[in-house]
Amino acid sequence: MEQKHLYHLVDPSPWPIYTATSALSMLIGVVMYLHSYWGGLGVAFLGFVALVVCMGVWWRDVVREATYEGRHTLVVQKGLRYGMALFILSEVCFFVAFFWGFFHSSLSPTIEIGSIWPPEGIVTFDPWQIPFLNTIILLLSGATITWAHHAIVGGLREEALLGLEATIGLAVGFTLLQAYEYVESSFSISDGIYGSTFFMATGFHGIHVIIGTIIIIVMTLRLYYHHFTKEHHFGFEAGAWYWHFVDVVWLFLFVTIYWWGSITV
Questions:
Q1: What would the pLDDT profile of 99-133 be if each residue is shown by its tens digit?
Q2: Residue-range domains of the chain with CATH
Q3: What's the rounded Cα separation, in Å, for the pair 67 and 81?
Q4: Are 161 and 145 in contact (CB under 8 A)?
Q5: Contact 175, 138 (CB under 8 A)
Q6: What SS3 state is found at 125?
């Protein structure tokens, strides 16, 4: 049947309900584990595996719709851009909660923690060592992914691949350095308000870096298989927007939690 409009009416798909069921199973497993039911680990693991599989096949279908079926018209791409922008806005609100908690506790330290910030006994990280190095790494990765974007627009496929590969290398380097920082930390997430706010904020940022790295790897493979053209490469653009968001969040983390947060108040 010939399509008479520019919009994409999605075909019936089993993946939404399967994905929701997998996510619910993973959550149930985590709750069981937190209530000392060790079998919950197995339930959470199976739910996680099922979730990853569902996400993979669901996104595979979206790639087919965009690349081979030509269903992502200019109107559809505009809607996808709005959707990605709103998703990033929701992520901004997510991190605002962590910054709010940090500033609430640090600007007016309670008597229970000695009325000082950082609390007594907390040995903070030197912001000009690994945190500063990670800042440089993320800023460089923002430059390399922008280079890749300009290369795609200019039809320079080899340069775009090189830029994406450099971005992946920098992202992996950042993750390894942050993992080393966690291992060497003198405090943990259970060490009062400072430990909980520090590890929640930086830990969730680290998770976002890992997710962004996976997205960039997928975009690199898609570029390698000629899925992108000068005019049609929104999948890459969405990944680049997400990565720039991750960069900006880290800059706020570095300035507030690592640098300002290490100064005794």
A1: 999 998 888 888 888 888 888 888 888 999 999 99
A2: 1-71 (1.10.287.70), 77-262 (1.20.120.80)
A3: 17
A4: no
A5: no
A6: coil
